[in-house]
Each structure stands twice: as structure tokens, then as C-alpha cells.
From TrEMBL:
Stated name of the protein: Uncharacterized protein
InterPro entries per UniProt: G_crystallin-like
Natural source organism: Paenibacillus faecis
Domain of life: Bacteria
Length: 124
């Protein structure tokens, strides 16, 4: 299962510093990062699929329940400063899956407020 190969580390500070939250699998949708006391706190992250590096998608939303503006990250990568993408300290919800979500799938998630099927949904 691709989701078991996904790893995500979120940091409150730039350059992978500050408070850290780890996800050791994909297939996760967080409706409100306030559940982790991490709303509007994300500044850097490391995203990986340890088996197939291209098969991972992270979508960060500025609003809770997958609303507002968003940024999409496909494939394994390190982002040391979300400020470079004008998205520092604005993330309120996210979706993490072990495959590549299409732009139309992301638009559907945003319009319906429903993440892809068969993933864990974390609410506050």
C-alpha cells in the first residue's frame, strides 16, 4: 500500500526548526490543524515516499475544511521556507496521500469539502 511508504514532517520554524509534527504514513486529511495546536504555524516541511519518490501529494490549504487558497506539492521534497511561496504561517488544513492527486481531484476536494475516499480524517 503506497500510503504506508509516505513520511511527512512539519515544522513551526523555517529551515526545519521549532516544533515538529510527524506523519509516518499517508492517507491522512487534517480538517483543522488546530487539533494539533498547529493552526497557522507551518513554516517548513519534509515530504517523502520512501519507495516511489514521485508518488506522493501534499496539499496545504489556508482555511479549515480544505478551503481558501492552497499550495500543491507532488513528489518527495524539502521546503525550508514556505515564506518563499507566500504561504508561511497560513496553513489551516492539509491532505497527504501516497499518489499524485490531479488538479481536478483537488478542485473537487475544495468544492465539496470531502477528501479522497479511504483515508483517515482528523477533525478538531
Amino acid at each position: 500500500m503506497a500510503n504506508s511508504d509516505v513520511r511527512l514532517a512539519l515544522w513551526s520554524g523555517t529551515n526545519f526548526s521549532g516544533r515538529r509534527i510527524l506523519f509516518r504514513r499517508g492517507g491522512v486529511a487534517v480538517r483543522d490543524l488546530g487539533a494539533f495546536r498547529f493552526n497557522n504555524a507551518l513554516s517548513s516541511f519534509r515530504l517523502r515516499n520512501v519507495v516511489q519518490s514521485t508518488q506522493v501529494t501534499l496539499v496545504l490549504f489556508s482555511g479549515t475544511n480544505f478551503q481558501g487558497s492552497f499550495r500543491v506539492f507532488r513528489g518527495s521534497q524539502n521546503v525550508a521556507n514556505l515564506g518563499n511561496l507566500n504561504f508561511n504561517n497560513v496553513t489551516s488544513s492539509l491532505i497527504l496521500v501516497g499518489r499524485n492527486l490531479t488538479n481536478s481531484e483537488i478542485s473537487q476536494i475544495q468544492s465539496t469539502g470531502r477528501p479522497p475516499r479511504d483515508i483517515l480524517i482528523i477533525r478538531q
